[in-house]
Every structure is written in C-alpha cells, then in structure tokens.
Amino acid sequence: MIQTVQPIPKGKEFFKHKKNYKGAPHKQSDTVFEVFDAFFVEQLFDTIIELGSGAGGFSLYLAEKFGAKFHTFDIINKMDRYSDVRKRIESFESHVYFEDIFRSSNLKKLFAANKRILLLCDNGDKLRELQAFAPLLKNNDVIMVHDYFPTALDYENQNIWRCCAFTDADENYPDLYPYYKNELAKAFWMCRIKK
C-alpha cells in the first residue's frame, strides 16, 4: 500500500483540492461534484455512509443531496473549527457521528438495517476501512476509496494530486468488481460493486 503524501517540486505546486463547498472546507478535487452528480443521476441508494467527515465540505454536499439517508463518521470533530457546518449538515436531517468506526455499533446497525448502501472510505486508514467493511456489504452495495490511482506509476506521473492511499494492487476482494471506474477515478475515487 502507498499511503503517502509526496512533496511537489518547486514551481509545480497544485492546491486545487484545498477548496470549500458553500463555505465548508473539503479536500476533494475540482471535478468531484460534477463526477458525483453524474453518478447519482444513474445510481440510487437507500443509505450513504461516509467514513471521514473532515471539515465537513463534502459531507455538506452529500447531506444536501440525501438528507436523512446520509450518515457521516469521524473520530475527531474537525467541524467545530468551522462554526456552523455540523448544524448545516444536521439541518438536512443527516446524521453526524464522532466515534471510532471500528468499534461503532451505530455503523454496524446501518449495515444490518439498510437495503442498498454506498460506503465512502475517506478516513485515516483507507485500506483498513476497506478490509473491515467490505465483508459487510450486500450484493449490489457499492464501496469507494478516496485518494485512488490505478497504479503507483499513474500517481508518480502526475502533478495534480498530492496523496495516493490506494491502488488496484492493494485490492484482493474477488467479490468486488470495478464500477464507474474511469468516471470516478477523475476525482481520485476508486469504486467497486459487490456481486
């Protein structure tokens, strides 16, 4: 697994991913909302679970789209530094949890109680998240991992994104199949469907 942040050579600095969504900071690419909007036009989910809320910008986007269907988990409450972000997310009847995802009874209940799930892994240890939660997915559930590149070489040969936490070489799940692979890779997200 790569899980690294590489310094960018002087003169090639790119900070396109240091953005905000309606005033709430996020660490996503410039293309993320366009890519996810297109994905959500074609795909329906009963529950969306985000692992890693961060400062809440991407969480706010998902809360606006999905309301009570959206659940976000983080160990540390980073949103409090950004005033009203958590309140804004909860105003859509979305759910915000600050707890250890690997010991969370709330998270296990969501897997057990819901039909089609979209799981977004974007917390501190994405490979561990995939290993822990992929076995809980049901057929037709979808899992995504952020900071994704198909190969380490793809990561090394670009100068836009500063983090590679996951490549195809890190994957060893015979029941997870590439899904919207090229579309979501444009926003540095790996996407797999359970079959």
Describe the structure.
This protein is of the alpha/beta class. It has one domain: Vaccinia Virus protein VP39 (Rossmann fold), CATH 3.40.50.150. The chain is built from 7 helices and 11 strands. The strands form 3 sheets. It has a 7-stranded mixed sheet, sandwiched between helices. A two-stranded antiparallel ribbon has the order 1-9. A two-stranded antiparallel ribbon has the order 2-3. Strand 5 (70-74), helix 3 and strand 6 (95-98) form a beta-alpha-beta unit. The longest helix is centred in the first third of the chain and has 11 residues, at 32-42.
The protein's oligomeric status is single chain
Count the helices. How many? 7
Do you know the CATH topology? Answer: Rossmann fold
Topology as a string of helices (H) and strands (E): EEEHEHEHEHEHEHEEHE
Cα-atom radius of gyration = 16 Å
Any low-confidence stretches, pLDDT <50, length ≥5?
1-17
Structural class: alpha/beta
- Major β-sheet annotation: 7 strands, mixed
Give the rounded overall mean pLDDT.
87
CATH class: Alpha Beta
**Shape label:** globular
Give the neighbour order of strands across the main sheet. 6-5-4-7-8-11-10
Structural domains: how many? 1
